UniProtKB/TrEMBL annotation, chains A, B, C, D:
Alphabetized GO MF terms: 5-dehydro-2-deoxygluconokinase activity
Domain Carbohydrate kinase PfkB: 15-317
Name this polypeptide is given: 5-dehydro-2-deoxygluconokinase
Residues forming coiled coils: none
Database matches in Gene3D superfamilies: 3.40.1190.20, putative 5-dehydro-2- deoxygluconokinase
EC main group: transferase
EC number(s) reported in the record: 2.7.1.92
Family from the record: Belongs to the carbohydrate kinase PfkB family.
Keywords: ATP-binding, Kinase, Nucleotide-binding, Transferase
PANTHER family according to UniProt: 5-DEHYDRO-2-DEOXYGLUCONOKINASE (PTHR43085:SF49), HEXOKINASE FAMILY MEMBER (PTHR43085)
Catalytic reactions on record: 5-dehydro-2-deoxy-D-gluconate + ATP = 6-phospho-5-dehydro-2-deoxy-D-gluconate + ADP + H(+)
Organism: Paenibacillus thailandensis
Ranges that cross the membrane: none
Pfam family, one: PfkB
Phylogenetic lineage: Bacteria, Bacillati, Bacillota, Bacilli, Bacillales
Amino acid sequence: MSTIVFDEKKPLDFVAIGRLCIDLNANEINRPMEDTVTFTKYVGGSPANICIGMARLGLAAGFIGKVADDQMGRFIVRYLERNGIDTAGVVTDRTGAVTGLAFTEIKSPADCSILMYRDNVADLKLHAAEVREDVIASAKLLLVSGTALAQSPSREAVFQALDYARRHGAVIAFDLDYRPYTWTSKEETAVYYNLAAEKCDIIFGTREEFDLMERFESNPDRSDEATASKWFDYKARIVVIKHGKEGSIAYAKDGASHRARSFPANVVKTFGAGDSYAAGFLYGLMRQWPIARSMEFGSAAAAIVVSSHSCSDAMPTAEQVSRYIDECNETNRS
Amino acid sequence: MSTIVFDEKKPLDFVAIGRLCIDLNANEINRPMEDTVTFTKYVGGSPANICIGMARLGLAAGFIGKVADDQMGRFIVRYLERNGIDTAGVVTDRTGAVTGLAFTEIKSPADCSILMYRDNVADLKLHAAEVREDVIASAKLLLVSGTALAQSPSREAVFQALDYARRHGAVIAFDLDYRPYTWTSKEETAVYYNLAAEKCDIIFGTREEFDLMERFESNPDRSDEATASKWFDYKARIVVIKHGKEGSIAYAKDGASHRARSFPANVVKTFGAGDSYAAGFLYGLMRQWPIARSMEFGSAAAAIVVSSHSCSDAMPTAEQVSRYIDECNETNRS
Amino acid sequence: MSTIVFDEKKPLDFVAIGRLCIDLNANEINRPMEDTVTFTKYVGGSPANICIGMARLGLAAGFIGKVADDQMGRFIVRYLERNGIDTAGVVTDRTGAVTGLAFTEIKSPADCSILMYRDNVADLKLHAAEVREDVIASAKLLLVSGTALAQSPSREAVFQALDYARRHGAVIAFDLDYRPYTWTSKEETAVYYNLAAEKCDIIFGTREEFDLMERFESNPDRSDEATASKWFDYKARIVVIKHGKEGSIAYAKDGASHRARSFPANVVKTFGAGDSYAAGFLYGLMRQWPIARSMEFGSAAAAIVVSSHSCSDAMPTAEQVSRYIDECNETNRS
Amino acid sequence: MSTIVFDEKKPLDFVAIGRLCIDLNANEINRPMEDTVTFTKYVGGSPANICIGMARLGLAAGFIGKVADDQMGRFIVRYLERNGIDTAGVVTDRTGAVTGLAFTEIKSPADCSILMYRDNVADLKLHAAEVREDVIASAKLLLVSGTALAQSPSREAVFQALDYARRHGAVIAFDLDYRPYTWTSKEETAVYYNLAAEKCDIIFGTREEFDLMERFESNPDRSDEATASKWFDYKARIVVIKHGKEGSIAYAKDGASHRARSFPANVVKTFGAGDSYAAGFLYGLMRQWPIARSMEFGSAAAAIVVSSHSCSDAMPTAEQVSRYIDECNETNRS
């Protein structure tokens, strides 16, 4: 079995590197943003959500990133700390950068969109020299978010973090999390995603994200197996490919593949589903659960988050997830 | 008397050029923004506020500007139109610019600040070729806001608008409205403020703003009279210099000067005071009132706006202002 | 007669502001640059050429500009000083800017072109605060070159120089010298050329350059008279419009117009013709010669420069120009 | 023995990717550039020089790069073609980029410097999508020059070329060729140099360049052996570390190390020494010579180039190098 072994001597279970931003969620939902009037502020950004998710699940989590020197930046750091997340690796920008914003629009549970503010954002100003090697050295698992590769100097910071993780034997998970803004071209994205993926143990992404990475290659049938197999030639041991409503499939280096079951949910919006799934799945792997059980745990966590108004703030505890799985199982049985 | 004559044959009383943005006002006030959770969305930007103020006072008003091609941009145009403002001169950006944002923080009525998002904003992308000569030709009064001079191509659009106004005999008012972000240096500001001010009939600003314009000159005593007199050598007929709590002073080309009285207010925040003052003052001038009465009307309008939560949305009608003046007078008398 | 009066008490006859660069003239001429192998280095840039021309004609000349902190920059300053030009107003860039380059290609006397290097050039980095008011205060005549308006901060430096010239009573000449590179758009050029031209006493340009300035106006017949007359409504007293081979025409505010005669030349290349013309013409005006005689002197100076390999280095002395006029007259008579 | 095997079925011996530029060498030498007047034009840029060197030595060589759409760009392509170099991989920029320039100053044989023009240069505008996979697939050996990593999109083009080389089994040589201009920071350089070096078979650089790459590591004694050994953990088989006048040392993966002997030369300037050395050394490896003999051949080629005025144009034929070695050996013997 291709279980991934984590170095139990390390004090920190998990550290994420990348985007820290603010979600401004419309309070009036099921209508276009032109008709909304008030917004509620949450901490956001995919790696931030996953990190908060991991902390809620009971793991010792930390973050490596950069925040603006303003009220939004201070709000973010405070929120992380209140969730028990180690912020020793979070530095404050001094160049006048701002905090990235995501205004969410929920026209219907199935029609959600985001209005992004990504110009001059602090999270993309993290320098390689600001990445704390000691923080990475102390962590069992490093999560890299693809958006952090979108611009210099954050791009270099990620590659430096990958190098530190290799040096110190941390397992590396790569959440592709492709967002077109801030990238110059799809070719640029493909080049850096591939350079990073070569160095990772666990890779998560949608079929479309893997297609993007195969821009200079030939995979005419968009075969998941061909995709996964390419990365097993490098360092990967698990490759998870998501197919939206059709669910996701996880390939392990030993040749096995696993499909996730999905859980019923009272969907408010789709945001945050991937982040809570990632948190739940990684949590399972760290507990040495089989892949299938880890995927189920991730799916249940996702079902809980899409049923509520926020992403970060709705991340469940391990007990909540387990209870939710039990409840669904009972419902099914009855 | 140096009354300013407006061309009564023109159908539009007033047109403003410059910033259109969104204010996000914290609903929880009297605390730092780190502790606020929800925000309410309003149309903002100094010239937008003045224009809305003029429309509320009953004048035929229009706007020349640029909005983002997104939900925020559409909200702004819709709000202007609902207030009866002509938006024929408002164009939509197609380059992916965003809407400027101003998050307000009200720690106390006397301690207010703004967190600005001004990177890649649509309002500064207005091109000279997009300024509608016909709209300016149809207007009695053009208001120019200094922030629109902060960057190209908006800077060129303003100079082109000034040229159209001169050609078609519109009276020109210049509200200095200096905001340090987006300007490269104080020298740059001084140069363009001076170039614009040379072409204006009415100039409003704080003592600090006029000091900035005199950066390359000698006015060691910071004399208001010297300042006003310089502009009377160009085209100016009224120069209003604001001294914060000490009130403001208006100089007329004929040599007269007038001090404004201030009105009692139940101050919630100080934002919007200058904009409502400008609207009230210009309204008075357009009704051919003496300068002193126009200033009083502006001060009363300002007192009303600082007593409420928003800027634009709180702009009073002429009747409300008159009633407020009457009430204050009665209170004084009693 | 609309003779322009210069303030004889001022010690400096002439000061130019703008571009200082390097010409690299192909030594092998009458062939494409792909076939040239060696280049000779000269000081170049239109205002530099005019300034060197004025110094050669015997006037006390100075320069306001910025050079790179490298061998090219030092070469330029040294060359100016060797020509007796006051370089107190020439500052050295400290930001790593380079010296603008112009590689000339002479395929035939009638087919000349220039390959320009204008990225990150020192001359466009002159700041308003670096313009020496005392140098302008000491000068009878300020020459502004349009290329210096192409970018910030040089653009602001020019407007500041114009303000100093007005304050101290210097006559201002504006050589439009439009070069498309470094400008963002023709609209941008039109706006700033017009703002500058409003403040000038003498304006030189080609018909095409004046067309560009009339981009937002109506002059359907491209009438020189309409063009000149517009500027007489501002401050201009002489407007010279050049029509290439058809010669140029000078309008004076008093209503008179004058056409220049052209001189026979053994043309090597066309570069430098306009600059030597400007130097000769302004020299005549400063000697209080009638416009027609000043134009003739400029034309003769131009004929001398186009007959040689360089621009700056070929600028003639007053004696050379006079002798050339005499020789041509004799030839004509015989 | 760790001889490197080249795929003999491939038609192209060698392909280089990176900088193509123009050297402008002062004709008047042994003086500062302020005192030079004429320049001679040559094709330049380190990988261009090496490629020309390889072609002169008799190998089938090609180039992957980008040139400006001007006379300089056309001169470069023509020169490469005249030297028998395949330019199928050389594309022409259409964005208005210029050709990089290097003005050389030779104050004395030991005191040489370069004045660089590297703003907006065509060579750094090569896109990943413009790299011809078929050209790399046809080549036995790919040479990557570090300067091509300095900026996007050229940086991505290099990584894409490295991926194509891996896919098609080309041997990869990496010439660090660090030039501080165009890089944002030393940290940025370290990150990308390391990412590229991991994928290379042969790495050349000075001790200072390897120090730069070890910025985030610990090699306090600056040990060449520690440096080489790090890269042998990746893909490297030969690491050459240059120590200026003290000569260079080559490490092979099998543990052997070799020091180069140097050849007497009548030094005109030091430029081009490294490039001719690289060409000679790689030529030897491709002929399956032992490392020591390849180094000697490189040293002799370098001695020939530093004795002449140009870099590219002075690259010797194999016969010239062999004859030079023989002559030196005879001199030594006598």
